[in-house]
Specification:
Elements (H helix, E strand, L loop, with lengths): L2 E4 L5 H12 L3 E6 L7 H9 L3 E4 L5 H14 L5 E4 L14 H29 L2 E6 L13 H22 L3 E8 L18 H11 L2 H12 L7 H12 L8 E4 L6 H18 L12
Parallel strand pairs: 1-2, 1-4, 2-3, 4-5, 5-6, 6-7
């Protein structure tokens, strides 16, 4: 059984995954913000479920370091790091200020870097481990408008994950990118999404694109099969963690609506593999073993 730290575990994919991993017998540290504030209830429920809530704000260097120190002081070591924390925004791209985009990147991209810098030294020292990145089919699938800042941030995270996989392989650390599609129920992504600060620009776009997000929401819901289950993302992560080292998939898609990301990623990942072989770095495609 593994000791796991997952970020963004107060709700959505994170909460479902943390509980599914605990059900599978793993020791799970559920990172979330505001244990003594807005997430007090979520922390209480996590504790009752057998999880170990830990204060973790991925946008704060000190919070990340304290979380890592807390976990490593209580257990022999972390085996799995799951990058799940994220935030969505909706609206015309032009109406978001640069500061808003920077905040979005801080959560979705820089947050993973903070966690990596806090925990990868431990994983590298022991020459073993798994890093799971919860991405998005939006990075290469069909995408609607009015979600550009979020899509760009998730694409940046995917690019970072792809490079990290190669740079960690010789330390014996494995990487898997889990790619969920646009689940319209079962998570709070759309309900808690941020909005643009420049309302005057929003008003101008509304003259040509009025009601667009309502249309997108309806159509995405129509694309979803009736049996689409957001918990399948959690089950996919449990399967990855439970798979023997060296046999884990590099990328796993969980996209009931089939927006095409699986097709495009298959080509991109094949090209990546072939290129690494051409430059004699094929060993980086799999983690080193003792």
């Amino acid at each position: 059984m593994s000791t796991i730290l997952i970020s963004g575990a107060s709700s959505g994919f994170g909460a479902l995954t943390a509980r599914a991993l605990a059900d599978a017998g793993h020791t799970v540290y559920a990172g979330m913000r505001g244990l003594a504030g807005h997430n007090t209830g979520a922390a209480r429920e996590a504790t009752a479920y057998g999880l170990h809530p830990v204060e973790l704000d991925v946008t704060d260097d000190d919070s990340v370091r304290r979380a890592a120190d807390t976990v490593l002081s209580e257990v022999d070591g972390v085996d799995v790091l799951i990058h799940n924390a994220g935030h969505m925004v909706t609206g015309p791209a032009e109406a978001f200020t640069p500061e808003q985009l920077a905040d979005l990147y801080d959560t979705n991209v820089l947050g993973t870097q903070r966690l990596n810098r806090a925990l990868l030294p431990h994983l590298r020292e022991k020459g073993d481990g798994l890093v799971v990145w919860v991405g998005s089919s939006s990075t290469r699938g069909g995408t609607p408008p009015y979600l550009a800042p979020y899509f760009a941030a998730k694409a940046a995270m995917d690019a970072l994950a792809t490079s990290y996989a190669l740079e960690l392989a010789r330390f014996g650390i494995e990487t898997t990118i889990v790619v969920p599609g646009a689940f319209t129920s079962g998570t709070n992504h759309f309900a808690h999404s941020g909005t643009p600060a420049d309302k005057s620009v929003v008003d101008e776009y509304d003259t040509r694109y009025g009601g667009l997000m309502d249309q997108v929401g309806r159509k995405l819901a129509e694309l979803e099969p009736p049996d689409a289950d957001v918990a399948e993302v959690a089950r996919a992560i449990v399967r990855v963690v439970g798979t023997e080292k060296g046999k884990r998939p590099f990328r796993v898609h969980v996209d009931p609506s089939d927006d095409g990301a699986a097709v495009v990623n298959a080509v991109a990942d094949r090209v990546r593999t072939e290129f690494l072989r051409r430059i004699d770095l094929a060993d980086l495609l799999h983690p080193a073993t003792a």
